[in-house]
Specification:
heterotrimer, A mainly beta, B alpha/beta, C alpha/beta, B: Peroxisomal Thiolase, Chain A, domain 1, nine-stranded mixed β-sheet, three-stranded mixed β-sheet, 12 helices, globular, C: alpha/beta, Peroxisomal Thiolase, Chain A, domain 1, 2 domains, two-stranded antiparallel ribbon, 13 helices, 11 strands, about 35% helix
Chain lengths: ~140, ~350, ~400
Amino acid sequence: MYIFCRGIGEIMTVARFWRKIKARYNLEGTHCGTCDGFFYPPRNVCPVCRRDGKMETYEFKGTGEVMTFTIIRTASEGFEHLTPFVVAIIKFDEGTQITGQIVGNPANVAIGMRVKSIFRKLGQESEKGMIYYGTKFVPEKK
Amino acid sequence: MTVGFVSYGAYIPRYRIKIEDIASVWGDDVKSLIGGLRVYEKSVPDLDEDTVTMSVSATRSALNKTNIDPKRIGAIYVGSESHPYAVKPTSAIVAEALSVTPNLTAADLEFACKAGTAGIQMCMGLVESEMVDLGIAVGADVAQGAPNDILEYTAAAGGSAFIIGKEGRVDLVAIIEDTVSFTTDTPDFWRREGMDYPEHGGRFTGEPAYFKHVTGAAISLMKKMGTKPDDYDYAVFHQPNGKFPVRVAQILGFSQEQIEPGLVVTKLGNTYSASCLMGLSATLDIAKPGDRIFMTSFGSGAGSDAFSIKVTKHIENIRGVEPTVQELLNDPIYLNYAQYAKHKGKIRMK
Amino acid sequence: MRDVAIVGIGMTQFGELWDKSARNLLVEAGLGSVDDAGINGEDVDALYIGNMGGGRFSGQEHIGSLVADYAGLATNLHVPATRVEAACASGGLALRDGIMAVASGYCDVVISAGVEKMTDVGANTASDVLTAAADREWEGIVGATFPGIYAMIAKLHMHRYGTTSEQLAEVAVKNHLNGSMNPKAQYQNKITVENVLNSVMVADPLHIFDCSPLTDGAAAVILVPAEDAHKYTDTPIYIRGSGQASDTIALHDRNDITTLGATVVAGKRAFAQAKMTHSDIDMIEVHDCFTIAEICAIEDLGFFEKGSGGAAAQDGITAIGGKFPVNPSGGLKACGHPVGATGIKQAVEATIHLRGEAGKRQVDGAENAMIHNVGGSGGTAVVHILSRNR
């Protein structure tokens, strides 16, 4: 499995992935104390308050709702073995939206469905290279 | 001993393959296979699952059942035969995924199928001596079985995690009354560095390996504690198939009723480093306060760890939050052999 | 600030052009525009070149110098050359930067051009390069492809407003019909709704025929102050309005997933500067990187209510003979989408119609045209209004 493309080491380098590990494994984002906005992925500058914002780290619960989705059938390099797979925009309960994969049968995914986060492999740099772990989503069972 | 389990968690992937679907590819006789192995189907990991992801899922499940502060965890040990990296510890990734870094010790373990219970023993020492507050021992594997080899029918995927703590510092759902091990150099099953699949000694894996070590550790423990099989409500033995644990239970004097709740291999397969821990999790899922559980693991190479465990009243507090082992075994998604081969990376892509 | 006019246009064939490199293409389009305006190299004050992926497609950055060099404008004339990048809106931005250079009085003759050479790499790599228009770190890494991102817009548009796959297909059908009348278009074949719906699904609900292709091509325009325009041509085409806007790079951070806020704002800014309204516009070239993108564009530019754009192609409203002709060139879908060139090509197409030279695909009596160019899934939008009348 390759993530991105053959020149992957050029794009998702070790340091670049490592820098965001807490965000990817544990959904660590940011919260603005001024406007009470929640942001994932983490941001340095609050887009609402800009310099008046007070950003602190916040770990998202990982539960949310499917706003829209698609079923990828022609994948980018590194994801071909997974097709067909679901990519969705999920609205976390805290309000912010993110793009993520929903695992399992694509026929089970619907707009409005509730999902929760799980820990999975996102890909790898190469057979010899680093393995990228992160967060995907699964339908929340009642 | 004043240490025991604070919580436990299990993870089993959704996918399964039936023994008959593997047999039809290799032309094996299904009836005699099932008669010989007493396994009907086994778990298969998803395309994006491995020992690391299952360890994280099992450990997060264990933590979710309690409200202890994860920062109290001072040690994490992950035992497996299928660590994704030969060098770079699974346990460090698990620690990061639990948000417990950086103030802890961690290391990966290997002792065939008993690496998980070895991890429990290590945590016991650290916790009893108060070198750490809480420890986590995980057994997880995406077991490798070579195509057209007998092991292919049972090599499964799963993970189970146990949080160990000390009485007085934290509520324990079960106390580990004592543990005894039995270890020798016995070459019944091995895998050389760089090889994809293990080698095994056929019938040699039985008497001189599994039975000698399991009975060796079990008898030693009962002798040390002055206990008999009757003193226990349940027993869990390492489950490479559905026959060995049944036979060793008979040899030792345990009944079928005692081992039944923990005998998950028939619908799960052999999860290797998770095997005993999965059986223990399934037993703890239904045990009552005061129940006593006898567990003996086995790892090829070879060794066994025997434990005498007593369930406390706190077991009720951690129920109902996370799925039980039986719930994880239900609702499977069946694959055919081609899909199974794709999932297990047996198809050479380049 | 001075008024600005287009006095020369040039464009290569759009398609898979195996014999031509990026520099060949740009020089060809540039020389075409220079001839059209009747200017000389010595007259050129500046070059603005839109190009998204020179680095990834050809391992080449520093496009400004490269193009100036191969156009013969570097060795002795040392013309200032600037490469402009905003993903698929690179061309539109190059146009706007050129306009501002002339409007400000800094320059008197500017070439705004765009080029993209996409077919030297395999389709998978090309697709990966285009994913750089999205958020690599948080969309690309989870496997979202560029069609996948627009597919999510389509899926929600369909869920919320009842837009159908047939309505999406009608956009492609119309644009292929228009392309069949455009000799420079990459695809000149007509297609049917069935062709679209039966084509392979790329990312639900978008079929391969809902998606614009990979294309090589270049286009160029010559910009001068309006007061000088008649020195070069009898039919100068005036820039009446220019609007540019940014929005979040990732689709998931937008205020509304089905609305490209950058298009809304850029359109309003262009209308405001032009002091025009929708009824003044006779034709629009919009950014139909996917069929859904055309539907959203005509809504977000305010020609249709949000959610009602789906019926526009289906009901013939946006056909060349219809009430609001959209993409008479064939759009990105049929004319092709050499990323950096598209924004300039739209200006070329508008100019051809406003000059009355569009032949079979002419929008009759066109006086005012709007062109709309988008980067990524809407992180950038740039809108211009061109007119026969100053």
